[in-house]
């Protein structure tokens, strides 16, 4: 057994040395290959690539890279107070209105527009004059006079309204007293009607001589009869009062006429 163990340990030691030598050889070979590649690279000739890109293209490319806002060129120009378009992009850009607007916004140099475009042509001036004749037919003096007359009319209307309000305010106390008198009269008439109704009911009860239910037919008939008689009496009293008032007026009028006749006869005798 012991000889076998010794042989086994010798084989293991031999294999370890062989593995170490193999790894060292691989590393050495790899290092030599890298050194050869470095030498070959140093020996290569240096070549220069011609820069065929123009300066303008290079500046344009750099400006495009600088534009981090992602805005369109026309929008970026407007942000920096520049003319939006270098060339016309639509028929609108050729109109007089648009060119005048660009001139007013960016100036003569910025808009690249002839300032004479802001002045009307002979045809436009003539049309404007004709329009003003129709739209404004009156002279300045005439319009001032009309305005002054309108102001006077408004002032007179306001003063008349104020006078009317003042007159009505003066009558306010009289109207208030009349209203209170009317209300008091209605209340008095209502109380009188209630008292008259109570009196008639009491008369009907005395007529029967015993307590009767107001809902009884006999009671209702007698009450209606009493009301008719009472209305006749009231009507007769009003008629007499009216006749008395008429007589008083006639007597007063007669006395005035007699006084006038006496005065006229006295003057005739003189």
UniProtKB/TrEMBL annotation:
It is found in: Mitochondrion; Nucleus. Residues 215-270 are annotated as: Disordered. Its main location: mitochondrion. It holds the Pfam family CR6_interact. Residues 215-256 have a biased composition (Basic and acidic residues). GO terms for cellular component: mitochondrion; nucleus; ribonucleoprotein complex; ribosome. Keywords: Cell cycle, Coiled coil, Mitochondrion, Nucleus, Ribonucleoprotein, Ribosomal protein. Belongs to the mitochondrion-specific ribosomal protein mL64 family. Acts as a negative regulator of G1 to S cell cycle phase progression by inhibiting cyclin-dependent kinases. Inhibitory effects are additive with GADD45 proteins but also occur in the absence of GADD45 proteins. Acts as a repressor of the orphan nuclear receptor NR4A1 by inhibiting AB domain-mediated transcriptional activity. May be involved in the hormone-mediated regulation of NR4A1 transcriptional activity. May play a role in mitochondrial protein synthesis. This is Large ribosomal subunit protein mL64. The lineage of its organism: Eukaryota, Metazoa, Ecdysozoa, Arthropoda, Hexapoda.
């Amino acid at each position: 057994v012991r000889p076998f163990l010794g042989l086994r340990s010798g084989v293991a030691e031999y294999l370890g040395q062989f593995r170490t030598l193999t790894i060292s050889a691989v590393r050495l070979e790899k290092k030599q290959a890298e050194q050869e590649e470095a030498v070959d690279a140093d020996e290569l000739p240096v070549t220069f690539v011609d820069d065929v890109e123009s300066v303008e293209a290079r500046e344009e490319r750099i400006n495009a890279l600088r534009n981090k806002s992602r805005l369109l060129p026309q929008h970026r120009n407007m942000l920096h107070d520049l003319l939006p378009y270098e060339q016309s992009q639509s028929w609108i850009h050729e109109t007089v209105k648009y060119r005048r607007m660009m001139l007013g916004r960016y100036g003569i140099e910025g808009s690249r527009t002839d300032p004479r475009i802001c002045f009307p042509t002979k045809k436009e001036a003539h049309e404007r004059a004709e329009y003003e004749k129709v739209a404004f037919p009156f002279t300045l003096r005439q319009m001032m006079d009309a305005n002054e007359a309108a102001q006077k009319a408004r002032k007179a209307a306001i003063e008349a309204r104020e006078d009317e309000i003042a007159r009505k305010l003066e009558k306010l106390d009289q109207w208030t007293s009349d209203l209170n008198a009317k209300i008091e009269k209605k209340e008095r008439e209502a109380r009188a009607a209630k008292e008259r109704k109570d009196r008639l009911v009491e008369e009907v009860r005395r007529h029967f001589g015993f307590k009767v239910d107001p809902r009884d037919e006999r009671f209702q008939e007698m009450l209606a009869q009493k009301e008719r008689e009472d209305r006749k009496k009231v009507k007769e009293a009003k008629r007499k009062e009216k006749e008395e008032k008429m007589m008083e007026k006639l007597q007063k009028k007669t006395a005035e006429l007699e006084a006038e006749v006496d005065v006229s006869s006295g003057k005739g005798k003189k």
